[in-house]
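Lecture notes, continued. The same structure-token format from the folding unit now serves as the input rather than the output. Read the line below as a description of shape only.
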């Protein structure tokens, strides 16, 4: 990656519990237009890295280091300033839509929250909601909007979560294993959607958000991402363009991940 200022610059980011670092001095760059895969085995610190970037670490976590988004430092900001940034800059899609959505609130009311925060007038909300649902491949907008999360399929809920993230018009989308809870066919559809939403397919289209995609699956990252960062026990052990890492992994741990991928079969097709 170049030396020019990046959309997101993470320097020496650590997350500790009781003085023990579980994310350990992580450096990360995401340029506009890049799709970066953050990969590592369970417990390697992927989710907490994303949580620290999105400022949603759990109680007891101590975050040190620097996270700059479009040049603005996010670590140590007061809550209100962070809140403003989050509704216009970095959006998170988590792996468990059922937990992320409020089961007692209709989809339309949940989708209205990021729109209002963005300043969309109440009378414009319904049209925006339909457009957002269409952009994530959900056509039956009227029915879905009136429903509760529990009345939707897993794939539909994940798409609603994606729509809520897009409603903030983010420049960076953090996707934390967004397809883990889905069956393989729906998984492939949602991954294809993520790729379409984060790829400038039409030259005239507005700049799509960059992506930080968290996964333990190198095959999926290879299909979706431009770059990959490999995390092991909280530390970055390897990084680079995805094609280079796949062709010639330098670290033994990356080779193990690659071997594991090959033993399960060819990468899943997401295009
Ligand atoms: N609230 C917490 N208190 C103490 N330790 C925690 C807490 N949350 C996570 N950890 C520890 O931090 C480490 C990193 O966790 P993290 O969830 O970031 O891993 P991960 O790579 O995302 O794993 P997975 O792929 O299973 O989601 C783990 O060892 C975990 O046990």
């Amino acid at each position: 990656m170049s030396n020019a200022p990046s959309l997101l610059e993470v320097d020496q980011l650590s997350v500790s519990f009781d003085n023990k670092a579980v994310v350990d001095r992580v450096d990360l760059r995401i340029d506009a237009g890049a799709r970066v895969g953050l990969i590592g085995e369970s417990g390697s610190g992927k989710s907490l890295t994303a949580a620290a970037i999105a400022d949603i670490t759990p109680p007891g976590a101590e975050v040190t280091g620097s996270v700059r988004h479009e040049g603005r430092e996010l670590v140590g900001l007061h809550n209100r300033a962070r809140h403003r940034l989050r509704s216009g800059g970095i959006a998170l899609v988590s792996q468990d839509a059922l937990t992320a959505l409020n089961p007692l609130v209709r989809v339309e009311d949940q989708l209205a929250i990021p729109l209002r925060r963005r300043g969309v007038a109440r009378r414009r909300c319904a049209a925006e909601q339909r457009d957002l649902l269409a952009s994530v491949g959900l056509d039956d907008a009227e029915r879905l909007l009136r429903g509760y999360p529990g009345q939707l399929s897993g794939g539909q809920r994940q798409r609603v979560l994606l729509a809520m993230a897009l409603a903030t018009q983010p420049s960076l989308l953090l996707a934390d294993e967004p397809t883990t809870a889905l069956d393989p066919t729906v998984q492939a559809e949602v991954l294809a959607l993520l790729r379409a939403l984060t790829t400038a397919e039409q030259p005239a289209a507005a700049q799509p958000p960059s992506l930080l995609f968290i996964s333990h699956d190198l095959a999926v990252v290879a299909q979706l991402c431009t770059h990959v960062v490999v995390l092991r026990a909280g530390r970055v052990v390897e990084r680079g363009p995805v094609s280079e890492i796949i062709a010639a992994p330098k670290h033994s741990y990356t080779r193990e991940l690659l071997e594991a991928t090959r033993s399960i079969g060819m990468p899943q097709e997401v295009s």
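Point for the exam: Confidence is low (pLDDT under 50) at residues 266-271.
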